[in-house]
Amino acid sequence: MREQQILHKIKKGDQQTLNNFIQDLYPYVYSFTYRKMQGDDSAKDITQEVFVRFIRQLPMYHAQGKTLHYLYRIASNLCHDYHRKMQRDLHTDIDRQENLISADSDVHEVILDQIRNEELMYYIGELSDSQQDVILLKYYHQMTFKEIAQSFSIPVSTVKTRHTAALKRLCALWKEGGYHETETHTGR
Fold this sequence. Notes:
The chain is an all-alpha fold. The chain has two domains: 1-90, Rna Polymerase Sigma Factor, Chain: A; 106-178, Orthogonal Bundle (Arc Repressor Mutant, subunit A), CATH 1.10.10.10. 76% of the residues lie in helices and 0% in strands. The protein has ten helices and no strands. The protein has helices spanning 3-11, 15-36, 42-57, 67-86, 95-100, 105-125, 129-140, 145-152, 156-176, 179-185. One of its GO terms (molecular function) is DNA binding.
């Protein structure tokens, strides 16, 4: 069924269609929010809030592209708000993984891969909010530049500029290192 028809049925009060719609889109929104929140438990609450806000706004909502993109935008805004309110450090704690490294090279490689992924997520967390959105949607959700631009109602050229700036910043952060030093100095 086309998305417009689904939204029309939901606006008319079809609860089953709404439940199916949320069930279909929830994993995508949660995955985005989880990465945006760097694995923080609050990702579940924020994802729930995304759908609550969408349902509240539904009577006035006029689809301009995929609804999933609109949900990503709501999720991004809620994550930004959460970060501003909490003003907390989102560094990932790797101490427990370091203690698990053993002589077994397979376990060692798995843990090193996990540490590298955590380090990358840390560096992504150092980007501006708009750069984080582009990187997460492009590489973790396989969205095109055009889809990202439509999601945030900005020109494709702006998305590409943010993407380029984000990649340059990530490369610089990776070369500088500092992830493990930051972890050591903060007691993590």
